[in-house]
Amino acid sequence: MVERKKQMSRDRVSRLINWGHWFAFFNGLLAMIVGTRYLSGVGYPETWYGWIYLTVSTIGQFSFLAFIAYLICLFPLTLILPYSKILRGVAAILATLCLCLLLYDTIVYADYGMHLNPFAFNLAWADLNALLHGTSYIVTPLAILILELTAANFLWKRIDKIQKMNLGHKVIALVGVCFISSHLIHIWADAADINDITRYDEAYPLSYPATARSFMESHGIDGVPLAQGSNHSSELNYPLAPLQCQADHHTNVLLITIDSLRTDMVDPKTMPFLYQYTQQNQSFTQHYSGGNQFKTGMFSLLYGLQGSYSDARIFNNASPVLTHNFQQAGYQLGLFIPETNLNLTSAQAMFNDFTPFVAKEALGSADADLQSVANFRQWHSQQSGPWFALVNLKAPENFDTPVGFLGIETVQARTALKPAQKVLFNQYRQSLHFIDNQLQAMLAKVPQDTLVVITGVSGKIFTSNSDEALSNLSPASVKVPLVIHWPNALSGKVNYRTSHYGLVPTLMTQVLGCTNNTTDYSAGRNLLQPSKETWIYIGDSRIFAIYQQAEVTVIDRHGKYRIYDENFEQRLRKKMSAPELIQVMREGRRLYHH
Predict the structure, then answer these.
(1) Closest CA to 394 of 532, 286, 256, 524
(2) At what angle do helices 365-381 and 419-443 cross, to 10 degrees?
(3) What digits encode the pLDDT tens for the residues 384-429?
(4) What sign results for the dihedral spanned by CA atoms 404, 407, 411, 417?
(5) Which is nearest to 557 in space by CA: 466, 429, 470?
(6) Residue 557 contacts by C-beta under 8 Å, 6 or more apart in sequence?
(7) Sign of torsion, CA 212 214 220 222?
(8) What is the pLDDT of residues 96-121, one digit of tens each?
(9) Rounded to two decimals, what is the model's pTM?
């Protein structure tokens, strides 16, 4: 008798486990339906292989999530409470909670461009009223609960018939094949830079597709850096409305961008010419780049948009409205740039409107800068109509100087540096002094009625570790000089905080006479007046910093955040300020929502 009771108990548990597997599979199907909401923000594939990947990825990912939820939540209960009536009710409630959480995640993803994590949850909780509308947040969970209860009872009554059909192994095989295939396809797409596949990398929650780099490293093969896929759809609206521009006078414009130029290094000893130039013209003393590297810094400067937009596929083809409208106004556009900066895949369509004059870097960045300056001076001497020139100098990025360059004396750094950093610090000064000489040579023949803008693409920290440089968002990496020479001799120091986002609106309104609201095409405001925003977004969609009035919040792609004081010297043990960060995230999605 005892043995029979044990057997009956084992049979009951076995039947409940079989039922639980099919209930989990049913919820995997429901999760796939809910998951289609993520695609409205990412866009649908445009190729047949994109559709194949999206199909197998969707089946594999949501089936996997449903099974994991079953193992964590339901399977232990099956062993503890092997009673079908109780288990069906509990399972329906747990499944409803999981699906509601998934639905909420789709809402947060559509609004903020990221999945639920500690950072996004805090934001969403503070912004709950704006995210949830009407009574759907009450009706929807009730409808899901009714559906789950119905499905749980339906499957329980028919579990024996379902088992006799022997479909379980086929379903497991299908899901397994889809899950493995999605990763194999992604490895190929990552290696070949297939954008129609890699742009779905972060579309689904808890999705970590295998990459070519991880595959090669796991097999002992040295990988190479690969281009990142876009995470967004081409359905972004840029600009939001047709631009109305009418220039009364065609002012020539020279924009000089210097890679890795720190504000605190423009002093009488290191850069005497630029220091004097800032005293004679309009100098912005609290100016920030939009990023800590070439891609985000130049993107924020030419597009006037946050770096979170830079992965959008539209920017593979859409040139900045700034350069497009200069071209439309009859300007000749010349680009003078080192070959490595022009050939960056991240540059995308940034320079499409320019006629490029590319400097070779076989002998280093400093030699390329000498070529760029010479190319500009020759091109400038040939211009008869209005012109817009962008000269990009790179030597400070690599601490480079040309062979035979007679530099300046070394000095003690103002902040404590390690021995290796001291060497880089003074070599960096030599490089800046070389650049200062080039600025003087370049501007010697530029007429006073030319509008000249000189700024840094980004700042610089003294390290030879590229990973450290990419992740560092301190003021040393992003605070850069900005000096503007106006033809009408406007000068003086501007002490309110400004950023790269403000250059596009300034040139569009002051030079091209555009009357649109600047929010139609930029995240910035005219540099000639203080911005109403009390924050600046710096970085891209993977890691970024929010510079507020008295603190800096650094956030990574997984939602982990750290808060520092305004000088980045001390980490603050405090919660983030949600209202301002909500504005930041809204700005990062504004062009998608319109």
Answers:
(1) 256
(2) 10
(3) 999 999 999 999 999 999 998 888 888 887 777 888 888 899 999 9
(4) negative
(5) 470
(6) 114, 202, 541, 542, 543
(7) positive
(8) 999 998 988 888 887 777 787 777 77
(9) 0.75
